[in-house]
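Q: Sequence in, structure out?
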Amino acid sequence: MNFSKKNWEISQFFNYFWPKRHYFHQFLSVSRGSFSKSLISDINCDMNSPEFHRFQLAIPSFPEEGIYIYSFEQNRMIYVNNWKETLGYEDEEVNMLLLVNATTPEYAQFSNEMNDKALMFLMSRSENLTKYSFSIELKKRHKNGSDVPIIARVGVYEAGDGKIKSIIGRYQINRNLKFGKVMRYAAYGPEKDDFEGELNKMLFTQMSISDKERKTLSLLAAGMTMKQISEELNISTSAVEKRIYPLFERFNVQNLAHLIQFSNENNLI
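A: Exactly. Output:
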């Protein structure tokens, strides 16, 4: 399939799907990773394009951090930088599908589902899209076969007419990360609570914890009461309970002492 035909098909998909996105939400939620993967390609970045050089001048880079911008309109990478230092690949080798598939097996299912659910949430919104992002702690497979501890943050880079045009991702190596059985993630944006709440609901079957839940759990483990936590975080006591009590079922623990023990064993607090 040539590039122009692929672009046309993606454009037709968005034109058809976008007005009906709410109706498709339940149907799409049953598959893990297939939704987001259907919107990306293995087309590499054109590093000679004026667009690439514009990004190169405008976007700062940091040590041990790989950066990409993926365009849904062009169905390809439009900017890549510093992937040799991050995952061992030359920038010319990097494409979106490669980065998605570089997730190590124990994190792949959660990462794929996270990508799906986050994208579905964002496609249900039409305002302030560039203010939304999410992060996840996971391991990526280096080109040499070793595992790399990564904090990956993905956000909307450009939007227009209520649609996502491109996303930006930053993969920062963090050798201080301590992993356990539980996947850790966070959501950011104007409707952060709704975003994180929606992810919590959709990812309930996964051994995962949001940044909001983790912070609340840390205060509880420090000996604070529900009331004290509510005052510290400026939220209601019932909101504190809604962050803590679902963790009992999710982590299969019987009481608070067991929850705190489990959290310590899995580096959550």
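The chain has two domains: 3-175, 209-265.
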